Every structure is written in C-alpha cells, then in structure tokens.
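Lab notebook, bench 4. The sequencing result for the construct came back, and we need a structural model before the next group meeting so we can plan mutations. Quick request posted to the team channel:

Model the 3D structure of this chain.
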Amino acid sequence: MVEWNISEGLTDYDTAVARMEARAEAIAKGEADELIWLVEHPPLYTAGTSANIRDLVDPDRFPVHVTRRGGQYTYHGPGQRVVYVMLDLNTRGRDVRAFVKQLEAWVIATLDAFNVTGEIRDGRVGVWVHRDDKPRTAAGAKAEDKIAAIGIRLRKWVSFHGLSINVEPELDHFTGIVPCGISEHGVTSLVDLGLPVTLADVDVALKRTFDDVF
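Done. Here's the predicted structure in token form:
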C-alpha cells in the first residue's frame, strides 16, 4: 500500500527532511507503508550534492539548506507543489536509472492532464516545455523553460526527496540561483503558461497518473 498525505500551509524544510528520513528508515524495516507526501515550503534554496557555490547568485535572499539529495541548487516556495517520494526499491527493482525515468514519466503524465507537453533533455535535469511565445535561440531552436525539477536520495534502497512542479510560484525567486546549474534556459509554471491551474488540480492529476507509471 502507498499512503498519500497532503500537508496544508507551509512546511518547514528541516522538519520535512527529518520526517522523510524517519519514514524511509521505517519503510526499510518493514514498519511503515510507502508514502507520497505533498507539501509547500516557504521560500528557500536547497543545495544538492553537485551544487556549485558560484550558482548561488544571491546567498542572502532566502535561507539556503544543504541537502544530500542528488542535483544542484533548486528553489522551493509557495505555489510550487513539492512531492516527496518514499518508495521501496527493494520490492520495485533496484534500478536507480529506471526509477528516475519513472519519476520523469510521472511528471510528464501529470502535465499532459493539462495539455502541457513536458519533455526530457539529455544533459539537463528535470522536465522542460517549449515556449512558442518566446524568441528562438541563436541556433534557431525553440525556446525552452523548465517546469519541474527532480532530485532523489536512496537509503537502504528506499527513496526520499523527490520532485517539484511549478504551479504558480513567484518566478522571480528563481533568479537568486542558477537553477540546476543551467543558465541558458528559463523557468516557467503552469499559470505562467496561461493555465488557471491550482495545487489541488495538480494533486488530483498526480494521484490519477501514479498507478499508470509505477
């Protein structure tokens, strides 16, 4: 059984990490069910294991949390759905790459529920969307913006951390970092794309598409 939990209001980041670590340990011991936990955080930056300090453009803007999940710098804040994924890969197959691909597919399926085409790019972490309303690149390619980030950690083959989907965050808050170390592309959200989507709408789509992917 996979438990689903939605936290109302803004969840303190350190509290979230402590809860994830405790739940992952309990899952590994067979003492708790797997968990999908949906939260919002107050504005903050997180530094993953590959973070480059040069990508922290404005270190005094929001609190910076050093975390042991994979990836570089990311932003979390109100209007962004953060999805903490605590699943047992001992029973789902001990294949990290396949698991990350499942997370990507889950995000893409969720976006598709709103007629948004999310895509994966080699060498660029996360999920991306074309922007026909923006100028093409110097090479003539369509402009692309990032709409979702993915970063996980495994302990005893149980996952924690997870992914985030930009629903209606303050996009200017991303300018304090180079998101995931990628400076040549922008960041967008479902509302920025012109869609009147709420966090609750995204939650419904996440739950509806989960079983199809996992």
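The CA atoms of residues 3 and 35 lie 5 Å apart.
Will bring this to the meeting.
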